[in-house]
Design goal:
Elements: H1 8-59, E1 64-65, E2 79-86, E3 91-97, E4 101-112, E5 117-125, E6 137-145, E7 164-165, H2 170-177, E8 183-191, H3 212-244
Parallel strand pairs: 1-2, 3-7, 5-8
Antiparallel strand pairs: 2-4, 2-6, 3-4, 4-5, 6-8
Main location: membrane
Pfam family, one: SURF1
Subcellular location: Cell membrane; Membrane
Length: 245
């Protein structure tokens, strides 16, 4: 003879469903958001790798003569060959280089054979070489045009009196040296006076951050942890309901 009410296991099942509904929804929605962020980072990784490959191809191209007109966007990383006269004025950008330690990027004016005045980033010098007399005279250089984006809200103002800078601000440095806002980062020197104290620091894509893979792994890992914790919570709720039932 059947009772008037629903079977006990049906009541138990309904109670379990009511208690796990909210954790289940939170778990699914949260995991979906985290997985979506991981997928977005994978897409960003492909985008960044394509950009780096394009930059690498441009960096390794044959150098050309310095164009008469330049655009900081279109001509960034363009390989160029320049020749002219180094002037003794110099700016020093405080940096730290991997395997080399702290030092200064040496920025000097170069008067081109045609009369134009530009800047050249000759490379890294030791901290104690800042006061040394800089090489001057005719030089031949190969490098890449660059307009670095190194300034943020935490970058100190340059110490103009001592010629110490904390980022390569091309327009401001050009104003200080009286040159065009054009910077050639030297890759190699083909002629003229050289110094053993200068280590070339050419433009390199290794210096461009590409952390999207790590970010993707982090988001996917968080999604896995979120789902695991959700599953554990649901299991606890189910076990408790069975015990109480």
């Amino acid at each position: 003879m059947r009772g008037d009410g629903p079977p006990a296991f049906c009541l138990l099942k309904r109670g379990v469903m009511r208690r796990i509904l909210v954790p289940l929804l939170i778990g699914v929605v949260g995991a979906g958001i985290l997985i979506g962020l991981g997928v977005w980072q994978v897409q960003r990784l492909a985008w960044k790798e394509n950009i780096l490959a394009t930059i690498d191809a441009r960096l390794s191209a044959a150098p050309v003569d310095l164009p008469e007109t330049l655009d900081p966007e279109d001509d960034k990383y363009l390989p160029v060959r320049v020749s002219g006269t180094l002037e003794p004025d110099a700016l020093h950008v405080l940096v730290g280089a991997k395997d080399l330690g702290a030092g200064y990027r040496l920025i000097q004016p170069l008067v081109l054979d045609g009369g134009r005045r530009i800047m050249v980033d000759r490379g890294l010098i030791p901290l104690d070489a800042k006061a040394a007399v800089r090489e001057t005279g005719e030089v031949g250089l190969v490098g890449n045009l660059h307009w670095p984006d190194e300034i943020d809200g935490y970058t100190p103002e340059p110490d103009i009196a001592r010629g110490i800078w904390f980022a390569r601000d091309v327009p401001a440095m050009a104003n200080a040296l009286g040159t065009e806002p054009v910077l050639v980062v030297v890759r190699r020197q083909e002629a003229g006076p050289q110094s053993d104290e200068i280590t070339a620091l050419p433009v390199d894509t290794a210096a461009i951050s590409n952390n999207h893979l790590q970010y993707a792994i982090t988001w996917f890992s968080l999604a896995a942890i979120w789902l695991t914790m959700t599953g554990y919570l649901i299991w606890r709720v189910t076990r408790r309901q069975e015990t109480e039932g």
